[in-house]
Amino acid sequence: MDSIIFGPAAFNSQVRQCAGALSNVFRRRNLRVLAAKLGCQPLLSQFRHKDRIFGLDLLLESAGQLKQHTYLENSLKRSLIYGNTWSARGLGKDVIHTHEPENLRAVYCRQFNDFVITDARVKHFSTLLGSSVFSTNGAEWKHSRAMLRPAFAIDRAADVDIFERHVQKMIKLIPADGQSVVDLQDLFFRFTMDLGTDIFFGESLNSLQDDVRKDSDARRFEEAYEAAKKHCVRNTQLHPMYWLRSQKGFKEAVVTVQDFMDRFVERALDRRQLLKDSEAQSETFLDEWAKLTSDKVKLRSELLSVLLAARDTTAALLGNLFFVLARRPDVWEKMSSEIQFLQGERPTYEQLKLLKYTKWCMNESLRLHPQVPVHVRTASKDTVLPVGGGKDGKSPILVPAGTAVVMNTYCLHRREDIWGEDAQVFRPERWAASPLDWSFIPFSGGPRRCLGADMAISEAVYITVRLLQHFKEIKAGDAEAWQEDLAVTCSNLHGARVILTPADVDASAGVDSAPITLKGGLECLEVEYPETCLSA
Ligand code: HEM
Predict the structure, then answer these.
(1) What is the dihedral of CA 45, 47, 48, 53, to 10 degrees?
(2) Which atom of ligand 1 is least distant from the CA of 409?
(3) Is 268 touching ligand 1 by the criterion CB < 6 Å?
(4) What are the backbone dihedrals phi and psi of residue 279, each rounded to the nearest 5 degrees, phi first?
(5) How far apart are CA 272 and CA 196, in angstroms?
């Protein structure tokens, strides 16, 4: 017994404990010095925990809200109690919650190098995506971004032909009797999958044509992709306790997805030499990337990442917009009126940019229902955030290395002090005056800002125009309120169940269809989103 207390092992352990305690004392002292030097004040607004050490109460509460699809709604309520920046405990560590534009700007842009995406995201998304733009930090991420970017810079005017091909397939699936209910959100998810696969690797999955792809590999890929994605999301949300949930089928799903993608990568590599010899224009994103590397795993990883980033987000944007349109005939009418000059013809890429009111509607949808409503970053070194400290919350706050910063775009986009008393209302006209700054960040900002923002808006505007041209009226197909479904992206749990009346069918309960002239006419307004402050 004595030897256990006084032997060499016990001595070593006591030395280690003393060294640990001493280093903690030094660390706290250094942090105090840094805080004083940078004018930091304490973050006074703190979540009222029952479990003040581990913060399990808040974690369990949040997990319950995620399950009940009320997490965002409750985060808004919390923001009314705790303000725009507050702290909480999460598994024994401090977590900062903020929806202050200045703090978001610091994390995304001004102090970009002080923050990284979380270990949970890196670990769980890498299982499916490998090392890619979406699942890495630092030099690896920089390399991915540099490789992907040129493909996004190519003139995409010809994409409207591909948009049109898939829009036509989608319209065929919409009942034309002016009575049946159709879930447009489901069709938008299929549309963006077909369009994305067509544009990124040159072969559509044809998910809008079930008859064509019965028992096909494409269908097996899609099922495996959905299953694998779900595992990634749930594991990230539960991290580090993810092992509590069953991982059954995850590995098999990943193998199916990756095998399917490898075929396209191999084809692109075969085409590479042909494209080089003929100096022909690359047809797909993958062709463009294959010019830069022949690493098959890298190409597959980036391809999967872009598909993941592009597909659900754009589909959810469209689903949310049409959910609102079905309840707002006034907005539908104004949009219809704006596109009259096209006289039913399909718009060109340039004409899409003329649609000011339609773009305001996109913005308003992105504001109220952002597809990525919560972002988390971890401080990679001791740093500060510019606001949140002191009694008035206006002083900088200290953010020690390892602290998680939870940034809530949903709360930011609904702040009444920024958007006015009608912040919760869908009112496109507010965009005539609203500033495009760090108060509106549906595509994030800084060096990691969305690479596909322009493409997403063009695609969404195009399909909206074509639906407005084909249907003269839209009505809600159910009485549900919008409710969050938070996965990789946030969409409406109840979908967009609507009834559409074709332009050539007489609607029994029509709305007043007198054209409404927009104040200011149709002038070109290129809607821009907060740009990077560092070159990306
Ligand atoms: C409405 C549609 C879309 C929304 C709301 C959206 C939003 C976002 C957001 C918020 C991020 C940052 C995520 C983070 O920092 O963790 C992001 C990243 C990204 N998005 Fe999008 N996105 C959309 C469509 C697209 C499309 C169509 C593409 C591709 C064609 C795309 C490609 C990407 C890529 C590659 C990244 C990773 C950028 C990086 O980490 O450097 N997105 N997107």
Answers:
(1) -120
(2) 10
(3) no
(4) 50, 30
(5) 21
Give residue for tokens 């108060």: 439
Q: What is the helix (H) or strand (E) element at residue 472, kind and residue range? A: strand 471-476
The alpha carbon of 309 and the centre of ligand 1 are apart by a number of angstroms equal to 5
Distance 449 CA to ligand 1 centre (A): 7
pLDDT in tens, 213-271: 666 788 899 899 999 999 999 999 888 888 888 888 999 999 999 999 999 999 999 98
Average pLDDT over the chain, rounded to whole?
A: 89
Query: Which residues make Cβ contacts (< 8 Å) with residue 172, sequence separation at least 6?
Result: none
The whole-model pTM stands at 0.90
pLDDT of 23-57, one tens digit each?
Answer: 788 888 989 998 999 999 999 999 999 999 999 99
Looking at residues 114-132, what average pLDDT do you find? 96
Q: ipTM of the predicted structure?
A: 0.99
Amino acid code (one letter) for 385: L
Nearest-Å Rg of the Cα atoms of the chain is 25
Tell me, in angstroms, the distance from the centre of ligand 1 to residue 536's CA.
14
Q: What is the pLDDT of residues 372-395, one digit of tens each?
A: 999 999 999 999 999 999 999 999
AA identity, residue 514: A
User: What is the pLDDT confidence band of residue 8, given thresholds at 50, 70 and 90?
Assistant: low
Q: Which atom from ligand 1 is nearest to the alpha carbon of 196?
A: 30
| 316 within ligand 1 shell (Cβ under 6 A) | no
- What domains appear along the chain, each with residue ranges and CATH number? 31-129+374-412 (no CATH), 152-370+419-536 (1.10.630.10)
Query: Ligand 1 centroid to 373 CA: how many Å?
Result: 12
Whether 136 contacts 122, CB under 8 Å? yes
Residue-wise pLDDT tens digits, 456-485: 999 999 999 999 999 999 999 999 999 999
Determine whether the annotation assigns residue 450 to a binding site. yes
The token pair at 437 is 């700054």
Instruction: Give the number of other CB atoms < 10 A from CB of residue 501.
Output: 20
- The Cα-based distances of 392 to 32, 39, 104, 387, 389 in angstroms read 21, 14, 19, 10, 7
